[in-house]
Amino acid sequence: MAEHKEEPLVESVMDKISDKLHGGDSSSSSSDSDDEKKGSSSSSAAAMKAKIYRLFGRERPVHSVLGGGKSADLVLWRNKKISGAVLAGATAIWLLFEVMEYHLLTLLCHCLILSLAVLFLWSNASTFINKSPPNIPEVKIPEDVAVNVALSLRYEINRGFATLREIGHGRDLKKFLIIVAGLWLLSVLGSCCNFLTLFYIVFVVLYTVPVLYEKYEDKVDAFGEKAMIELKKYYAIFDEKCLSKIPKGPLKDKKH
Predict the structure, then answer these.
(1) pTM of this structure
(2) What is the pLDDT of residues 218-241, one digit of tens each?
(3) How far is CA 2 from CA 5, 6, 12, 14, 209, in A?
(4) pLDDT tens digits for 239-254?
(5) How far apart are CA 181 and CA 176, in angstroms?
(6) Cα(first)–Cα(last) distance of the chain, in Å?
């Protein structure tokens, strides 16, 4: 009888152990499935981010596109006090020359006269008032900075000349239309305002548009994608009805 009682006890213990083992296996399998789901969701999210349309085919953040460093921080208003001071200074200069009709040469001469007069009187009066003379720093333009600026300017000018030469040869009709439209728009703006006002408008636009774009990046990119689709559609219609009917002569390569 004792043996018959021990057998059910042993069987019940074995059943409990097997249940625990199966439960552990199921929990581990469920955790594995959860990990797989998380991995698949993260990969799908990364794929969705990669498929998102960015304006002008941009693949890097706005800060990196602008070159990074202090200049990008200034344009993107990372330090609002410094960026606001620059914008206020540009606005003050525009008001001074445009609204108050102050002339640049007159302003420079008056500033130099005032500065030199203060420094001259201070240097001569320092012996009578027992104070040290002003410490005027020696200002020099480094040679490497001047060379780098000249090389960069030379490169940009040569690239502009090369673009104009390529357009003049009639090899890129799309670029030709873009350049003509841009020059026409610039001429219209030039007839409405003078150079200083135009320069100030361009400065304000370049100083405010990047930070606004960075703030509303997703909305602007979505709108830009729709606009680009519509522009391509209209350009295809224009190309089919007009541009494709223009006769093109064979391009002959020059033999040197």
Answers:
(1) 0.56
(2) 888 888 888 888 888 888 888 777
(3) 5, 6, 16, 19, 91
(4) 777 767 766 655 545 4
(5) 9
(6) 115
